[in-house]
Amino acid sequence: MRQQRNFSIEFKKQVVEELISGSSRPSQICRRYNIVSSLLDHWKKQYNLGKFDNEPVQEAALQDRIEKLERLVGKLTLENEFLKKAYQHKLSQQARNGKSSNNTDLNSRPSAKDVN
Predict the structure, then answer these.
(1) For the chain, N or C: smaller number of CB within 10 Å?
(2) Phi, psi of 14 (to 5 degrees)
(3) What is the pLDDT of residues 62-81, one digit of tens each?
(4) Contact status, residue 47 vs residue 61, Cβ threshold 8 Å
(5) Dist CA 42 CA 88 (whole Å)
(6) What pLDDT does 27 receive?
(7) Looking at residue 116, what is its pLDDT?
(8) Would you say the C-alpha torsion 10, 11, 12, 16 has a positive or negative sign?
(9) Nearest to 15 by CA among 3, 28, 2
(10) Distance, CA of 101 to chain centre
């Protein structure tokens, strides 16, 4: 069984900075340091987020924030849809039971005749 290798943060940072500088292509870097391309991509993402004691790249930090906000919007949308369905179900139950209350029926609005 192959033993898992551990790389220092300094080494990862050096490899990613070499990649970003453009002095070597990703395939060359992978061969030189005997790492797989997916690991190099993973390190690059971590570097962009500032995980290697460096300043995060603003674009990556903004992208991370966008992803978090999109997840939050999705969650809130699901909750909103659930509550709408529950409210409509409650209204339909009240209508079937003959219990109609002006306080619970938010969809009814007074007409122009009712206002005058």
Answers:
(1) N
(2) -60, -45
(3) 787 899 999 999 999 999 99
(4) no
(5) 47
(6) 95
(7) 45
(8) positive
(9) 28
(10) 41
